[in-house]
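pasting for the record
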Amino acid sequence: MAYSSIFYLFSHFFVQLLTNGGNERAIPSFGPSQIGVHQSVEDGQLRRIYLSFDDGPNLGTSNCIRICSNQKVAATFFEVGFHQARNKKGQRLYQKILKNDSLFAICNHSFSHAYTKYLTYYHHPQEAFADFMQAQTLLKPKNNVLRLPGNNAWNTKEVKRASGLVRPLVQQLDSANFNIIGWDMEWRYNKKGSPIKSPEAIVLLVDSLFRLNLTVTKNHLVILMHDHMFRTAKDSINLNKMIALLKQNPRYRFEKLTHYPGLKN
């Protein structure tokens, strides 16, 4: 069984266990005055969270930008070149992320996103590599971090995880000095595009993965989300609440994935 499948089973098990079959337990509160306030915590005790939003710019991207800006938390946007290029709204959203580089990073998520035909895409690694280079030229990211479409592969100086399907493409990208970053957990969405789990359940899963050391890199956790999940006011409230709950823990810090440990220069 692939690593990502095993990881999902572990994640699903712990969410069910901690939420008691869907009835969330109360999350310990640090008090309203402490939300977002960094108490004195030794660096070795800190746990770093990397919020990542995939497939933008599209519906929901502006809400992700607004919420993270208001909450003053770092986030990484894995952008699809085609989505950025196809209309002026996408270009405006892209520029809005780009201008706030103190909080946000824009990273390459391919030009086409494989047009969702992943098997064909990865069976032609040279064409897939060219697809990423097209996005790199268009997006002009200020970094060498990227994420494969529809695949949880990793390739940095310290982490090498790739299935046989994507390994030829990963090798080409590695030779071109790119870092490939996957994810530790995903906030999944339903057929309507809305988040499946509650913010409380997601926070409990984050706590559990840290506590049980089930992340790719100890004390570093990457959360995968998709911009379109937060296109409505109701779903945006859930994102805002999830971030606010995480900020209550004085050990948690939010970082851009360009600060993930072990990246190639």
